[in-house]
Amino acid sequence: MPQSVERYRHLKQNDPEIYDLIQKQAVYEASTLKMIASESFASFSVMEACGSPLTNKYCEGYPGARYYEGYEYVDVIENLAIERGKKLFGAEHVNVQPYSGSPANQAVYRAILKPGDKIMGMPVPDGGHLTHGWKVNFSGRDYVQVPYGPSPATGRFDMTQIRETAKSERPKMIWVGATAYPHTIEYAQFAEIANEIDAYLVADIAHINAIIIAGVHPDPVPFCDIISSTSHKMLRGPRAGFLLSKIEDRYQTQYHPDSKLNLAKRVDRAVFPGLQGGPHMHIIAAMAVAFRDAMTPEFKEYGKQIVKNAKALAAGLLARGYDLAGGGTDTHLLILDFRKKEFTGKDAAQALAKSGIISNFNMVPGDHRSPFVTSGVRLGTPSLTAMGMKEAEMEMVAGWIDRVCQNIANIDAVAPTIRAEIADLCKKFVIPGIS
Ligand code: DSN
Fold first, then answer.
1. Does the predicted model carry a pTM greater than 0.85?
2. Which of 44, 150, 343, 400 makes a 20 to 30 Å CA pair with 134?
């Protein structure tokens, strides 16, 4: 039985129904391959901070300027989170209050733009995020998205094309960041384009923060006005968001009604009181824990191994004749490209899940299928890497994926065997925060 569940003795007594479901989820996660690219495992320490009495505390405002009394200890906690965030990323300013990635991104808009302004971002089917200007999201309704994305022919950014679009459309802000782009992002090249058109450059590094920390992906901090992130995903912290920014605003008088304030102050004001009320102090404490963990050599090794594992998995799949969007990966994720297959991404994701490989179906560049079924499956390596898996296990994973894809039509016959083999492999590893 997973240790984390054994520890929940009060919950077990008071609400056995929820306890039982948590237990089942923990057992499920400990016996399957979590390959959703935006997931990893938070540590027991992070979860203990999340489950601490800080959950009760209200302290609207920022350290030293609260609207509630009794802030002595929580001010120290929030300042620690901020200082650790600054040190970890080398940032001038850090805000740790966003409730998650989407609220962090809302704050970016409120800090630097006015409704109706033009922004450049990747549509969701191209690998962007809802909050990068997608039409059904506030960001696509209140702002005007100029879309860009990987070239359908190469699966990679065409920087000449992106520059041309930016110069003709002149957006006031460029988002650079993705949820399904497997290649290196060259922030310096995006910064040149943003500078040429006097646009803000904002990176969303929620998916790739750990590989940036590990030094195996370019660092956006020198190039971007604001950087948005989550603290869960590969960073392995609590379910929350944070913002890094420069202190000064290089376009001070141009775009914003609050232009007397510097950028750091506008970011803070956009989060509170602009969008949110009381900060979640238990989560901020857990974020401080995660930032501290992320400064260790072990974390940097984990970040490096994430990429090595993704490359090993890509090599294993390519060797078995599969197509990958953009031909491979430089990051934590890869996208199986099933455009030439008779089955869809959704068929494959469901068959993989039955077999114990948990992923999500995803559009691929140049996809002819609808977003409800797609031609792709997105696979990420952070969770397996957090368990301690390395290249040899990735070769086994490639083999299992191949067996599933060869047997989509009769998956019920083969899935139980594959699932049992996967459960056996998982037993050899410690599952952080579970076992
Ligand atoms: N939903 C996340 C993902 O899976 O990429 C992004 O927020």
1. yes
2. 343
